[in-house]
Amino acid sequence: MSLPPSPLSVGIDLGGTSLRLGLYDRSLDLLSSHSMPTRVAAGPQSVVDEAAAAIADLLRAHPRHHPIGIGIGSPGPINLQTGVLGLLPNFPGWDNFPLRDALHLATGLPVTLESDANAAALAEWKCGSGSTSGLQSMAMITLGTGVGSGIILDGKVWHGMFGMGGEVGHATVDPNGLLCACGTRGCLEMYASANGVIRLSHAVAESQQGTDALRRIVDRPSGFMPLEIAQLAEHSDPAAILVFERMGSYLGIGLANLINTLDLPLIVIGGGMARAWDLFAPAMFAAVHDYSVVYRLVAPSQRLYQEPDRTFIRPATIGPSAGLLGAGMLPFLAQDIKSNPAPPILEERFQ
Amino acid sequence: MSLPPSPLSVGIDLGGTSLRLGLYDRSLDLLSSHSMPTRVAAGPQSVVDEAAAAIADLLRAHPRHHPIGIGIGSPGPINLQTGVLGLLPNFPGWDNFPLRDALHLATGLPVTLESDANAAALAEWKCGSGSTSGLQSMAMITLGTGVGSGIILDGKVWHGMFGMGGEVGHATVDPNGLLCACGTRGCLEMYASANGVIRLSHAVAESQQGTDALRRIVDRPSGFMPLEIAQLAEHSDPAAILVFERMGSYLGIGLANLINTLDLPLIVIGGGMARAWDLFAPAMFAAVHDYSVVYRLVAPSQRLYQEPDRTFIRPATIGPSAGLLGAGMLPFLAQDIKSNPAPPILEERFQ
């Protein structure tokens, strides 16, 4: 007598430099994984074919498991209704590629597409910083090269009308600020990302508050990494400390607007720059306090409410694999939604 | 043989100057209404008792109807979980009053409490600017003395953790801007409200762009109304026109951040100041375009998506009775939710 096969899901994290694959069981334990360079220049169909071959290899090693589907986290913008990619800045020639259908054709498996920032948010919600509290709503802000964000409301990723919900990185935190590549002035992404820290480092180095140590790094012809500025700040260089204080202030303004709009119980801060948490968090919390009446009103000192605390803002706990794990969750979530449809909409009652 | 009684709901719009009552049938037709001054100084219990007496009078005139409950729209902040009022600026001595329980005790009817801005948003969604499109998500921004807002997501008012969701009026649109009474710098409410127009009128009058006509109104010792500035603008006074252009720009920045965050299909602009739509809307649309990459990306000219249009931004159609109508909808909505509970949360699956 043989046991029925256990379900597994295939997660794909599509990045500009590497494509990562993972097989997950129902408990979201990683059964196998594989990573390969993303051959962007070879074109999307070649990459899909390579991914399909790698998935077949991985699945062969798990004959007792039954693949229920593929989840893929992709850089945005994506049209989630059609599964077609938009104009991806780091993927020249990939625009309008029907990623979801192509992957389905190449593998025969159902495919659920999601933005990479939303996939990471799902992972932090279910398995990371949001998992202990049983919360049904939260946001995750990913501080990477840019600033991504994913918003979970009442247990579901909030997509908005065109799947563009959660572009908090492109909300303005300074209407007279620097012009972002997206065309908006003062986007959060211009300050609270890796590129933002590089930009702020130049500005501080050139100002009266610049130090010789900061200028030595910033003026290097070969460029520099934000990590170097963080190390300088950890060694108490006042100019480097100021860089992260400014970054934290801008981030705090963006979070304050998000809290005023949605009154969320939790915001998780992830991505590579979140490792500098100790350097930017004090200024971030100060700005959230200064700019969010909702944050201040629900604070216990105001005695407005009896609840234990205000919005929590915490660093992410999963790290760089959050996107892959979130992608691996998608097929299970899709299955759950299918077996528990939402109640019918009560439109008719008010006609 | 007698027909069973038809259901009706009682709506209450609690304002700082008047308290309005309305009886609504299932089709949301107004059966009867009554208005009285809100005797704020007499204290909340007296006002509740007066309201209860007036409701009893109204109900006596409709013996063929059965009241299913009371909906009340109240100024915020309110703790919607407990039904207790917060610190209402225009209701001194009312803080911590258990409005929901007091109204239930005085009438014997179930009571649903909601913020006035959320009640107005429900009315515009079901019966006003949002009703023709069958949309399940939208926001309404109410430009009154201050700026209120209500957000409807997937067919429900979004309350957030403490019922404070939708405080878009206190999101900052200028981190270096004027200090709001809430304690935040540059709140949208400081510019896009009746008081904001008064403030902007002073600033323009005192600037090089000021005109004699504007200064005559602004310098009047007895004060002035925003409507007078609007009339001046309609007569082509360049300074008065500039006031509304500035107001529209700030409003547009606030809307752009909301669109970037939630990618909503519709934003409805209501409240007294919305009557100046023709004066502020062009600058508002320009700022939304300048500050929202989501708005720009979904625009047809970008050809990213095939959908017919971007976020619609429209004036409200119901007018000042939206709050009362929305309050009257609450008991019917509460009944619908009870008879169609949401599916169980799928928490366990991922443990």
Task: Explain how this protein is built.
Chain A is of the alpha/beta class and 351 residues long. In chain A, 37% of the residues lie in helices and 19% in strands. Chain A is built from ten helices and twelve strands. Chain A has helices at residues 44-60, 99-107, 116-127, 194-206, 212-218, 226-234, 238-262, 277-291, 293-297, 322-339, and strands at residues 6-14, 18-25, 30-37, 65-74, 78-79, 84-85, 111-115, 138-143, 147-153, 156-157, 266-270, 312-315. In chain A, strands 3-2-1-4-7 form a five-stranded mixed sheet. In chain A, a hairpin with a 3-residue loop joins β1 and β2. In chain A, α1 packs across α2. The N and C termini of chain A lie far apart (58 Å). Chains A and B meet through α7, α9 and α10 of A and α7, α9 and α10 of B.
Task: Kindly summarize this structure in a few lines.
Two copies of one chain form a homodimer. Chain A has helices at 44-60, 99-107, 116-127, 194-206, 212-218, 226-234, 238-262, 277-291, 293-297, 322-339, and strands spanning 6-14, 18-25, 30-37, 65-74, 78-79, 84-85, 111-115, 138-143, 147-153, 156-157, 266-270, 312-315. Chain A is α/β, with parallel strands linked by helices and 351 residues long.
Tell me the fraction of residues in β-strands of chain A, as a range. 15-25%
How would you describe the oligomerization state of the chains in this entry? Answer: homodimer
**Radius of gyration of chain A, taken over Cα atoms and rounded to an integer in Å:** 22 Å
Instruction: Using a beta-carbon cutoff below 8 angstroms, give the protein chain pair with the largest interface and the number of residues from each chain.
Output: A-B, 78 and 78 residues
What topology, given as strand order, has the largest sheet of chain A? Answer: 3-2-1-4-7
End-to-end gap of chain A: 58 Å
Mean pLDDT of chain A: 89
Tally of helical runs of chain A: 10
The number of E-state strands of chain A comes to 12
Outline the low-pLDDT stretches of chain A: 299-308, 342-351
Class by alpha and beta content of chain A:
alpha/beta
In this structure, how is the largest beta sheet of chain A organized?
5 strands, mixed
Q: Kindly state the percentage of residues in helix of chain A.
A: 25-40%
Q: What is the ordering of alpha helices and beta strands of chain A? A: EEEHEEEHEHEEEHHHHEHHEH
Shape of chain A: globular
